[in-house]
Amino acid sequence: MKRLCFRCGAEVPAAEEKCPVCGKKYRDNFITRTRELTDSYDPADIGGGRFLCVLSYLGALVLIPLLSIKSTDYVKFHAKQGLILTIATTVYVVIMNVVSYLIRAAYGNYVFVFLGLGLYAGLFYLVFLSVLGVIYAVRGRAKLLPGMSLFFRADTEE
Hints:
Blueprint: H1 43-48, H2 50-55, H3 63-67, H4 73-107, H5 109-139
């Protein structure tokens, strides 16, 4: 798997610790380890579809790129990730509300303050993934978000 700079997207050789283009130190983490698929899409499609790709990560607006006639494979890639995030966020919010209600009913509001904060951590993570998807879309990159490889077929692999 290629090592790519998170800031500029340039390839970082295995022997290097810093990006040869922008100089940022390369960090191996759960974001940099996700699969990069930008090379498998036409550069003309990438340049023309960035706005639709950004809409893919803004909740219900994911329907616009999904139903758009001008959607390319690159836009559909981001729309699929956005749809998965929208569904996951909706399901998580429903579950979070049920669990919050049960905690309050069983233990009262004081315990909910401590246990409820843990419930919001998952919601913040889903929002973080949406922001990361918008960043990738604006930069013109087709990169799987952490955890998304579960939902993509094997033919998208390098």
